[in-house]
Amino acid sequence: MRKRGLSRVSFNNDTSEARYHKQAAELAWARTIAFLKENLNP
Question: Which of 18, 21, 30, 35 is the most exposed, fewest CB within 10 Å of its CB?
Answer without folding.
Answer: 18
